[in-house]
Fold:
Amino acid sequence: MTDAARSERTTRILTARLEELARAVERANVSARQAARLLESASVATMHAVTLELLSSARAEELWREAAERHPAIELSIAREIERFAA
Structure:
């Protein structure tokens, strides 16, 4: 598997996981604190992908910003997670 293919696969997996979590959080109508805790696992997975150079930090940030645009109800929680791996 090429590096580009591995990166694309990682992007698809992380995007799917983030979307599933975001939809679940929206349906459950949880507090911002609970939403942040639920999204933390996806954030950690994203940080690991960046550390392993499967994904650039810029691309990771872009994935999370796109999710925030699609899911405004949890945008604040997503923004906090972006700050964690953008630093």
Notes: The chain has one domain: 3-86. The mean pLDDT is 86.
